[in-house]
Amino acid sequence: MFKWMIGPLAAIALALPASAQGTLDAVRARGALNCGVNTNAPGFTTLDSRGEYQGMVADLCRGLAAAIFGDATKVRWVPLTFATRFTALGAGEVDVLMLTSTHTVLRDSTLGLRFTANYFYDGHGFMAARATNATNVASLAGASICLLQGTTNEGITAEYFRARNLAFTPVLFADQDQVVRALAAGRCDAYGMDASGLASAQSALPNPADWVILPERFSKEPYTPVIRRGDENWFDVVRWFVSALIEAEESGVTLDNADDLRASSQDANIRRLLGALPEVGQALRLDPAWALNAIRTIGNYGEMYNRHFGPGTPVAMPRGQNEIWTRGGLHYAPPFR
Question: Which of 195, 269, 273, 309 has a CA 20 to 30 Å removed from the CA of 249?
């Protein structure tokens, strides 16, 4: 998802907190990972009936905490909007942004931030009220379209309609909760967002069948955890944490068999991944069992995806590009050696 308008956020690069202490050491000293999450995005981050965060983004926060502490509960949740997330990260309010953030060249080169490893591939699309009889995006000419402020979707929508000399009325909101309420109240004819966000919003509407997700996709939206620039060890920790979940799926390591494989596997790659051979953990300044602790908490990437987007879930989506490479997808872990 999501960020097109850089604007004053370029000032983040000038406002980064100066500290000789690396982020990993600061997290350990604090005793908790400050993790930036979406406010309400079914499939990625929602609060359950017990007031606990659930979703892929929430799992990533817990998994990273487990990798660092061996304890998935050591997370301090920091809900952020798309308009405030990069400022909050630059100001040191969070250690990592897990909330859905697209890796783009301008963000990468102007914000003083680093984008780590892709955990979800998406693309911009539109959802229209069935009453509009829209069958494609061109049929939304003249429509009022809900958009989230400070997202790639805001710019993509404007560019699409401008290039085709079509008019539309943008209706801007700060978060998806506001969008869902606006759609339910009939304030917008359509919603422009990444496909996962459209499915998430549709599942939250009072009458989901009154809305149809149009088939076209108009962009590449790779989501990655984001950190502050200038901390190579923390960059490595976060990047290889995501890669470990993908490697686990590639290697057949699951939540249920990870402990047994650590004890019994003769595959050197699995032994390095799970800490039976300690060099990867040593290189990252983590416990040798760091990846094992994450996997035994949230499972491998495929298990995590299916838990939140698989068949029978409220936001069910075919894996498509989010499959591992051996099954035709884009996920591919660099070698664990």
Answer: 195
